[in-house]
Specification:
Structural class: mainly alpha
Largest sheet: none
Order of helices and strands: HHHH
Radius of gyration: 17 Å
Number of domains: 2
Number of strands: 0
């Protein structure tokens, strides 16, 4: 169930941007409190990274929506790569839900848990993504 090269490249690129900006934001957010005299630069970097991260997330939502009829439904019906596909679907679904929670959560306690879950899943996603692609290529 190999995807069209252009679609695959767009998906890989947006996931790379999401991981890079998310990881970069995590670093900048930690550094803004610890940097002596450079906190403002880290604050600006964090703000810019999270803005790009949000834009890439919107593009990713479009691409994930396109994956449903092009890839997910057909591969699922054929019984292909279901374990890693389920992991990808669950992880992406939880990332979407937690991002919504980060934006709209009113409770600081809920926001803290949502943030930790989102960061943990975001850091795990490249491994799950790599395994999904690897298993898919190996079994086809």
């Amino acid at each position: 169930m190999r995807l069209d090269r252009r679609f695959r490249c767009a998906l890989y690129a947006t996931f790379a941007v999401l991981f890079g900006t998310g990881s970069g934001w995590l670093l900048a957010d930690r550094m803004k409190e610890e940097a002596f005299g450079a906190g403002e630069a880290w604050q600006t970097a964090a703000a810019n990274l999270i803005m790009v991260h949000g834009g890439a997330a919107m593009i990713t939502l479009l691409l994930l929506g396109g994956l449903v009829p092009l890839h997910i439904q057909r591969a699922w019906r054929r019984g292909r790569n279901r374990l890693t596909a389920a992991a990808m679907l669950a992880t992406n679904g939880l990332l979407i839900v937690t991002s919504f929670g980060l934006y709209y959560a009113g409770s600081e306690l809920l926001r803290h848990w949502t943030s930790n879950i989102h960061i943990g899943l975001g850091l795990c996603l490249p491994v799950i993504f790599f395994l999904h692609v690897l298993v898919g290529r190996y079994r086809s």
